[in-house]
Specification:
It contains 6 helices and no strands.
């Protein structure tokens, strides 16, 4: 929704900061809507919006694991490998080998 409205109404980056503030006021005690987390959600959407198959796989992973892969793996093909491998092999984000 953020991406679409930014494009449609030519909203700038401040909209994310304002939205985070509004959501925190509307839903007190809920920490899932910080501006940092909204930026991550926006990036997540941008990265996977054109890949319905990959969307199904990332939905199987916890949010934290998705963020680790998204932040650590810049190449889209490599990211797809790690997402699928994580889902198939049950890797956790804290495994070292």
């Amino acid at each position: 929704m953020i991406v679409l409205k930014q494009k449609k109404y030519k909203w700038g980056d401040n909209i994310v900061e304002n939205l985070a503030k509004d959501l925190q006021e509307e839903i007190p005690g809920n920490f899932g809507f910080s501006s940092r987390n909204l930026w991550q959600m926006r990036r997540f959407y941008e990265e996977y919006k054109h890949s319905p198959i990959l969307q199904q796989v990332v939905a199987e992973l916890p949010w934290g694991q998705n963020l680790v892969i998204l932040q650590m793996v810049k190449n889209a093909e490599e990211r797809e490998y790690y997402i699928k491998a994580t889902a198939e092999m049950g890797w956790t984000s804290c495994q070292t080998e």
